[in-house]
Design a protein that fits this description.
- The chain is mostly beta strands.
- It is built from one helix and 15 strands.
- The chain has one helix spanning about 20-25, and strands spanning about 1-5, 35, 40, 55-60, 65, 65-70, 80, 85, 90, 95-105, 110-115, 115, 130, 135-140, 140-150.
- Strands 2, 5, 10 and 15 form a four-stranded antiparallel β-sheet that branches. Strands 6-7-8 form a three-stranded antiparallel β-sheet, with no helix packed on it.
- Residues about 1-20 have low confidence and may be disordered.
- It has a domain at about 1-60 and about 95-145.
Length: about 160
């Protein structure tokens, strides 16, 4: 059984200097807000001025592979013997993904990441979760880029 992997996430622009403003102008009260993104920032190749802005770029597409692509912005995340990994998956295979978590909260966020497989772009009860989960902490007012592997679950016929 095989299925194509589709990424279901929202790309947002995030100013990396936001954390500095939070220290200068603290909020009163608690705030709990976390975003999952399929983009990350990269320093410019030819910076201009004393404070060059970072570039927001889409992270690699989830794919199979026995090693990571060193370029997090490449077409695919996984490589097999130096060749781009497939985006067509089957049960039991290992999928490599990259994503970012931004914690806008006033406290650290404990995150449990899960991945679901779907035949369309709508998350619903028919989507199948991988048995693999990852837990990690993202400090308050910080973004964290994650590279994670997942075991592909058995998928319904036709997926």
């Amino acid at each position: 059984m095989r299925a194509s992997v589709r990424r279901k996430s929202l790309a947002l622009s995030v100013d990396p200097a936001i954390g500095h403003y939070g220290a200068l102008y603290p909020l009163t009260g608690a705030r709990a807000e976390v975003a999952v993104l399929n983009t990350w920032f990269e320093p410019p190749v030819n910076p201009v001025g004393t404070y060059p802005a970072a570039l927001q770029q889409r992270l690699c597409t989830p794919s199979l592979g026995n090693s990571w692509n060193a370029d997090r912005f490449a077409a695919v995340c996984g490589l097999t013997n130096g060749v781009a990994g497939s985006t067509v998956v089957a049960a039991g295979q290992t999928l490599r993904t990259r994503f970012a978590v931004t914690n806008y909260s006033t406290d650290d966020a404990d995150v449990e990441a899960s991945i679901y497989f779907s035949s369309d772009d709508t998350w619903d009860a028919l989507d199948v979760a991988s048995a693999t989960t990852h837990t990690f902490t993202v400090n308050k007012s910080v973004s964290s880029q994650q590279g994670r592997t997942w075991t592909v679950p058995a998928l319904p016929p036709g997926e």
